[in-house]
Amino acid sequence: MIIYTDGACSQNGKTNSKGGYGVVVCDDNGKLIDAYGHWETNTTNNIQELKAVLYAMIQYGNDPRSIPIVYTDSSYVHQTFTKWMYGWANNGWRKSDKKIPENLDLIQAYYNLVKKGYRIDLRKVAGHSGIKGNELADMIATGKTDPINLKKGVDMNG
After folding, report:
1. How far apart are CA 32 and CA 156, in angstroms?
2. How many helices (H) and strands (E) does the chain have?
3. Which residues are 21's β-sheet partners?
4. Cβ neighbour number for residue 89 with a 10 Å cutoff
């Protein structure tokens, strides 16, 4: 299984911000099998990026027979979930500067799933580089495409 995630936010971090995330799920051959989007106000792009990957982990990361490949275009999310959170956890959920990491509730939710045995293979992909699955996840996150209207079986390779 191959999953593309993306998050977006207009008026990032401001009271009137509007953001969302998109998740595009493909079979091993790159054919679209599902898509999901969620939108909210008073958010940030990083929150939405984290929520997208967390959604993928919750929905698809609990099958020990198959570990899905999940692509994010967020360096922050990739570094947080593959490296930083382990050090923070070992340091009482403090960064090296002794400050509490931003978005700790989402990070701890992901960490707790890992501790329960949930697994994804999280990889970094370049954003806005023509990768169909990533572009579609971005269109869902920004509200330009409704995932309900997507045709299943479309080739997302490329």
Report:
1. 6
2. 5, 5
3. 7, 38
4. 16
The CATH H-level superfamily of 2-75+120-149 is Ribonuclease H-like superfamily/Ribonuclease H (3.30.420.10)
> What one-character DSSP code corresponds to residue 158?
-
pTM of the predicted protein model: 0.93
- Tell me how far apart the alpha carbons of residues 37 and 85 are, in angstroms, rounded to a whole number: 25
Q: pLDDT tens for residues 99-154?
A: 999 999 999 999 999 999 999 999 999 877 778 899 999 999 998 888 877 778 88
Q: Round to whole Å and give the CA distance between 31 and 15.
A: 38
Cβ distance 30 to 5 under 8 Å?
no
Q: Residue 14 has what pLDDT?
A: 85
* Distance, CA of 125 to chain centre: 12
Residue 9 CA to residue 24 CA, distance in Å, equals 18
Question: Would you state the pLDDT for residue 145?
Answer: 82
Alpha-carbon dihedral of residues 35, 141, 157, 83, nearest 10 degrees? -100
d(CA 60, CA 104): 22
Contact 47, 19 (CB under 8 A): yes
Query: What does the alpha-carbon distance between residue 30 and residue 132 come to, in Å, rounded to a whole number?
Result: 10
